[in-house]
Every structure is written in C-alpha cells, then in structure tokens.
Amino acid sequence: MDNIYQQIVNLQRNFRSYADQPQAAAARSLETEIQRLEDEAQVRKNPRSLEDRIKSIIRQLDALNDPKVIDDHHVNDLRSQLENISAALRSLS
Questions:
Q1: pLDDT-based confidence at residue 93 (cuts at 50, 70, 90)
Q2: Closest of 52, 47, 57 to residue 12, by C-alpha
Q3: What's the CA gap between 46 and 48, in Å, rounded?
Q4: What CA–CA distance (Å, rounded) separates 66 from 48?
C-alpha cells in the first residue's frame, strides 16, 4: 500500500504542475478530489473506496474540455497514472 500511496502523491504533484489555470473551477474541483484520494490512501481506506474515488476523478478528467485549464496531453498522462493506481489497488483485493 505504501507504493500506491507514493503513486498518488506523485499524481497530485503532477496535477499541480500540469494545471495551467489552477484557479479555474474545474481545476479546483479536480485538486479537491485528488486531495481526498490522497487523504483516503493515507488513512488506508478500503481499496474499493479508493477505486471509486479514482473513477470519479477519471470522469472529471474526461469531462474537462478546456485545454487552457490542463493540456490534453497532460489529461491523458493523469488518466494513465490513475488507471495504473487502480490496477495496483485491484491486485490487493
């Protein structure tokens, strides 16, 4: 689980560096969800709960259609990181 937590921290760091307009509502909402994911991983919540949070973040990324907030390439990178974390969580179950 420590490896998964580190992946989430890296995701959070990447998101902050990728957000071109961090003050935009969509970026703030994503940052809040990613922070919740990090908080839940830190207290070692059930992997299924973490997967649900990841699905929520992916839906928000998919709905994001403003490249001024986050570049499409960066959205794809974040999505890939989230899918890798989700696969690692499934392997724990």
A1: low
A2: 57
A3: 5
A4: 30
For residues 62 and 41, give the distance between their C-alpha atoms in angstroms, rounded to a whole number: 23
Query: How does pLDDT run across 7-53, given as a tens digit for each residue?
Result: 999 999 999 999 999 999 999 999 999 999 999 999 999 999 999 99
Q: Phi and psi at residue 46, in whole multiples of 5°? A: -55, 135
CA 53 to CA 59: how far, in whole Å? 10
The backbone region for 49, taken as left when phi is positive above 0, alpha when psi lies in -120 to 50, beta otherwise, is alpha
Burial 36-58 (b: 16+ CB within 10 A, else e): ebeebbeeeeebeebbebbeebe
